[in-house]
Amino acid sequence: MPHLRYAQLRYLSLILTTWLAVFFLTRSALLIGHLGDANSGVVQLFGIYGIGVMYDVAFLLYAALPLTLYLVLCPRRLWEHPWHNGFMHTLLAISLFAMLFTAVAEWLFWDEFGVRFNFISVDYLVYSDEVINNILESYPIYPLLAFLALIAVVGTVLLRKATDAALQAPLLRWRDTWTTLAAILFAAVATTLAVGQDFPRGIGGNAYQRELASNGPFQFFAAFRNNELEYPQFYATLPKQEVAAQLRQEVSEPNARFIGTDSLDVRRMID
Predict the structure, then answer these.
(1) What domain count does the chain have?
(2) Are 163 and 93 in contact (CB under 8 A)?
(3) 246 and 141, same domain (yes or no)
């Protein structure tokens, strides 16, 4: 890929590759923790990881848009300023911390609900005071955050050579800037048309396989946009005919007869 010889795209690819690695490890950890429930053979594993990559890339195409805009539109004079190099290393450290925080949050949410982020996690933002207090009482949050920060710093140090090599590469030529932006925007729009909250993860497999193939941050924003929760997945239900029989039994009276043919129709004629 000849375009990756440019500094902006090399730095962007470094961050995106790291995010993809964290998503892969998160998916693998969740799979190993629920291997029996997932009941996955070789074909199902290919589906989980293949569809999973689609969701990962779909999320990153949108999440990386602000960073992409900054990188490709950053003036040469600003890019070559001495403090800018340190800023980019700091940005990488913040990104690593965000990745790790997201992975841990996904693990804890999965441990409680057995799913990726959904509308329940959106509700957590609405009732943030109660949720935060509950989390602070249930988990050693501050030591955990400090540990994640330490890992992020160590990761930044380990990636220092790769980061410096990316930042010191030639800058994008101005005429290539708009081509790059157009390509990324096109990919983001195309992904929106191809990937949704329930497709392609809903093509087949059991509930665990579908959730493992998902991407937590993608599902979070999809749930926020759609504002819905799949009721049968989280609440006990009865067969339709059994519910209909119980309902008619509850409203039946000696002087009334049902006039509808539908078992759930409780309209009655009172004699």
Answers:
(1) 2
(2) no
(3) no
211, exposed or middle or buried, with CB in 10 Å at 0-12, 13-18, 19+?
buried
Question: Within 13 Å of residue 222, how many CA atoms lie on the same side as its CB?
Answer: 19
Phi, psi (degrees; rounded to nearest 5) at 200: -95, 5
Number of alpha carbons in the 13 Å side-chain half-sphere of residue 70: 12
Q: Quote the DSSP letter at residue 171.
A: P
pTM (predicted TM-score):
0.82
Q: How far apart are CA 56 and CA 72, in angstroms?
A: 22
Tell me which residue range forms the domain holding 264. 240-270
Cβ–Cβ under 8 Å, residues 221 and 125: no
DSSP letter (8 states) at residue 64: T
Residue 180 and residue 263 in one domain? no
pLDDT tens by residue, 83-138 = 999 999 999 999 999 999 999 999 989 988 888 988 888 887 777 777 788 888 88
